Amino acid sequence: TPEDSIRVERRDLVTGVDVSGTLRAVESSVLGPPQVRDMWQFKIAMMAEEGSEVAEGQPVLAFDPSELQQRLQTKLADLDAARTEVEKKKVDIAVTIANDRLALAEVEARLRKARLLADQPADLRSGNELRKARLDLELAQLEVDLVRQRIDATRRAGEEELGVLEANLAQVESEVRHIRDGIGRMQRPAPRDGIVIHVTNWRNEKKKVGDSCWVAERVLEIPDLSRMEADGEVEEAEAGRIREGQSVSVRLDAHPDREYRAVVASITRTVQEKSWRNPLKVVRLTLSLEETDP
To answer: By the 8 A CB rule, do 223 and 25 touch?
Structure first.
């Protein structure tokens, strides 16, 4: 009957697909071990509590500096030894040059005396005395030349040896500066105001105080909460129903009563295991949130 009739309309059938994942910032400052010369493994000495609010410049991560402090003590001893060697070489060079100058003064005095004798008039001396005086003059001149050459050679050799010692001193001083700089950088300050997030590694584990980490590992991050994305995943059987640009409704575990709107920004082209512990096959996708509430 007309009273029992129902109007039929053609509409799109709206269905949904469950997506699970984690929220992340589009931009985030990641902190880990500092770049320190000849140091690859670090031990965490301090970490800011996850979820804590920090201000820019506040220490949020620190590493054990004991290895660098031991290096510093060794290098400071090397530095003292290198400085002592340089000072000793300077004294040795000064003493040697002073002795050579004294020897030069003596032979120059003999040269002047020999020149006076050789310059006397020939009619006042016999031939043998004159020849002897001239030979003495030549010998004195040779002695003066030899002493001057020795002084010059000693000076050059001393300068070369001193240069080597000073270069070694500069190298040790540079190493001491690098070690001290490394010790200072073992404490990492927050690069911005924000909330501390502990980063998970490939085994889905987070670092804690006392753990060791490699130089390139990420330990914590401070995200910019004004721009957020979500890394999601769907089961392989549902992946064919997902397209880029589709609308998504997002609810957070911490605030299930609040709904955020997002769109599917990208979808991976490969099927992967959910994790190394869970072999469930999933397809990963990125969601772009239209707005966020820091």
So the answer is: yes
